[in-house]
Amino acid sequence: MSWDRFKQHYLFIETLDFALDISRMDFADDYLEVMKPKIDQAIIAMEELEGGAIANPDENRMVGHYWLRDASLAPTPELKKEISDCESAIKAFAAKIHSGEIKGSDGKFEHLLCIGIGGSALGPEFVNQALGNPTNDPMTIHFFDNTDPNGMDKVLAQLKGKLGKTLAVVTSKSGGTPETRNGMVEAENAWTKAGLKFGPHAVAVTGLGSKLDKHAVAEGWLTRFPMWDWVGGRTSELAAVGLVPAALSGFDIDAMLKGAKEMDAVTRVKDFRQNPAALMALMWFYATDGVGKKDMVILPYKDRLELFSRYLQQLVMESLGKELDLDGNTVHQGIAVYGNKGSTDQHAYVQQLRDGVLNFFATFIEVHTDRAGESPFVEEKFTSGDFLQGLLLGTRDALYEKGRESITISVRDVSAHTIGMLIALYERAVGFYGSLVNVNAYHQPGVEAGKKAAASTLELRQQILDALSAKPGEAFTAEQLASELGLVSKTELIFKLLEHMAANQNRPLRKLIGDPFYESKYLMEQ
Ligand SMILES: O=P(O)(O)OC[C@H]1O[C@H](O)[C@H](O)[C@@H](O)[C@@H]1O
C-alpha cells in the first residue's frame, strides 16, 4: 500500500478528531466514480427518510432515529416536543434517583437491573461496557437479557439483600417480548420473596398502551418512558431505551447525543467522498460484491469497545439480512458480523484471518488516547499502549500482505461523545448500504418465524402434560405419545420436550431410561 494511496483515501474530520482510512481496500481506481449514481441515490433516500418519509414500507412507519439527537429535524411540532420532553424527563428522573429524592424501600438506589433483549439490551450493554466505571458510577448495573433461569439466578445472587436499593428498568418497545416478560416476572418474584413490593422499584420503557405499559400503570410503577413506533429497536440506543440506563449510570447523555448529532451532520454531506458513512457503505459493497460474500470482522483495539461488535451484529444483520428486496425479488441479502477486540483476538482466530479462508474484510478501530493520565513504561521506552497500537498496525500489515483488506477507523478516545459518534456512523452506513442493495433495512420479518414456532412448542408442551396427567403412572415412549396425540410428524419435538421436562423439578414427570435412547419412557407420577 503506497503513501499516495493512503493520502488519497484517508478522510480526516478535524472537528470530530475522527478518521476513516479505506486505502487498504483494493478497489479499482474508477470504482468510486462508477458507484457515484448509486450512492447519490442512497443519500437522497436518506434525506427523504430524515424528512419523515415512510422509509419502512412494510410496517408503514417513518424511521426517525436521527431526530432523537436533533429534535428540530422531526417532521411535526408534536414530535419535536415529545422528543425533548422525554429527554428532560429522563434527566429529571435520574437526578431524583441520584439525590435520593426517589428511593427504594431500603434507601437510596445503588443498583440498576436492566431487563430487556435485542435492541432493548445490546445498546445499554455496549454503552455500559464502554463508559462504565464501577467504582465511581452512582449505580451498579446488571442485566437480564434472556429467559435463561440460571442466568437470572447469577444476577440475582449479586443483588442478594440489595433489592430494596435496586431499581429495575424493564425495556420492551413492543411490550410483549416473552423473554423480557419472563425476566420481569422473575424479578417481581424475587422482590416479593424478599418481602418487598416491585412497583416502587420499577420503571418501564415501552410503547404507549403496550401490555408492559398497562402492567406498569396497574402495578403503580415509579414511572414510564416512551418508545415510539418510528424508532427501531436496533436504533434505539439514543432513545429512552439507551438514555434511561445511561443517565442513571451517570453517563453524560448530552455528550452522547452531541457526538451522534455531529456525526449525523458529517454523514449527511452530499459529496460522498467526504462522507464517512457513504464511503463505508461503498466499501462494504465492494468487499462483499453487494451480495454479502464476505463477513465483516470488527476489531477494536480497546477493551471498552469489546461489545461493539455484538451491538453491530444486530444493527447490521437484522437490518440487512433480508430474503426479499424492495421490489419483491428473492435476494437473501446480508453481511455477517463478528469480532471482539484486539489484540486479544490475535491469540484466538487471527491465524485463520491471515492464512485461512478469505471470506472476510476487517475493520480496525483505533483509539488514540491510551488511558487518562500517564502510562508507566513496561519496557525501557514503551508503554502497554505502545504495544497495543503496534499490534494493531502489525496485524493490519500482516493481513494486507496476504491480500486481506481492511478499513481503519480512528477516534480520539472512548468517551460519551465518541460512543455517540460511532453509533451514528454505523446507523447511517447501514442505511446507505440498505439503499445500495435495495432492501428495507428497518423491518425484521424473519424474526417472527422463530417466535411463532417457540410459542407453538409451549402449546405442545401443554398437550403432553395433559395427556400424561390423564393417565398417571402409565409410561410412554415419545413415539407412543406422539401417536396417542395424533401428532406423529412432531415426534422429535415431543421427545425434546419430554427430555426437558424430565430434567427439571417443576413437574412430577419421571423418565425411565431405555436403550436405545428412543425407547426411554416418561410418566407422570401418581
Ligand atoms: O424491545 P422489544 O419489543 O422487546 O424487542 C426486542 C427485540 O425483539 C425482536 O426479536 C426484534 O427482532 C428486535 O429488533 C428487538 O430489538
UniProtKB/TrEMBL annotation:
Its main location: cytoplasm. This is Glucose-6-phosphate isomerase. Pathway: Carbohydrate degradation; glycolysis; D-glyceraldehyde 3-phosphate and glycerone phosphate from D-glucose: step 2/4; Carbohydrate biosynthesis; gluconeogenesis. It is found in: Cytoplasm. The active site is at E318 (proton donor), H347, K451. Its EC number is 5.3.1.9. InterPro entries: G6P_Isomerase, Phosphoglucose_isomerase_CS, SIS_dom_sf, SIS_PGI_1, SIS_PGI_2. GO terms for cellular component: cytosol. Gene3D superfamilies: Glucose-6-phosphate isomerase like protein, domain 1. Belongs to the GPI family. The keyword Cytoplasm applies. Transmembrane segments: none annotated. The keyword Isomerase applies. Keywords: Cytoplasm, Gluconeogenesis, Glycolysis, Isomerase. Coiled coil: none annotated. It holds the Pfam family PGI. Catalyzes the reversible isomerization of glucose-6-phosphate to fructose-6-phosphate. One of its GO terms (biological process) is glucose 6-phosphate metabolic process. GO terms for molecular function: carbohydrate derivative binding; glucose-6-phosphate isomerase activity; monosaccharide binding. It is an enzyme of class 5 (isomerase). PANTHER family: GLUCOSE-6-PHOSPHATE ISOMERASE. It catalyses: alpha-D-glucose 6-phosphate = beta-D-fructose 6-phosphate.
